[in-house]
Amino acid sequence: MSEEYKAKVFKSGNSLALRLPKALGLKEGAEMTLREEQGKYSFEPAHSKRKIDVSKFAGTAPWLEPLPREDFDDSRRDWHLLGRDASGA
Fold it and tell me: CA 20 to 30 Å from 10, out of 47, 52, 73, 75?
């Protein structure tokens, strides 16, 4: 069963804002996605990629070494297939 709440629109700077009831359980600073469809509005939590803060533990395992990059290798290129000589010119 859904609940019904009243909310008030007010001016905040040069924008309009919507004051939502605390009973909705939203956290301050939460990002929301707002949709308008045929004059009706709906909102839901925005799906954002979570970022990991490594500042607290970065460098705490000095015995670990970075892995070599595998996206670049030093293998010989077949430049002749592109109509170029071995120097890439």
Answer: 47
Helices (H) and strands (E) in the chain, counts: 0, 4
Residues in contact with 14: Cβ distance below 8 Å, sequence separation at least 6, in sequence order:
none
Q: What is the pTM of this model?
A: 0.42
| Nearest Cα to Cα of residue 31 among 19, 16, 48 | 48
Under 8 Å between Cβ of 36 and 27: no
Q: Retrieve residue 45's tokens.
A: 């939590």
Local structure of 33: helix, strand or coil? strand
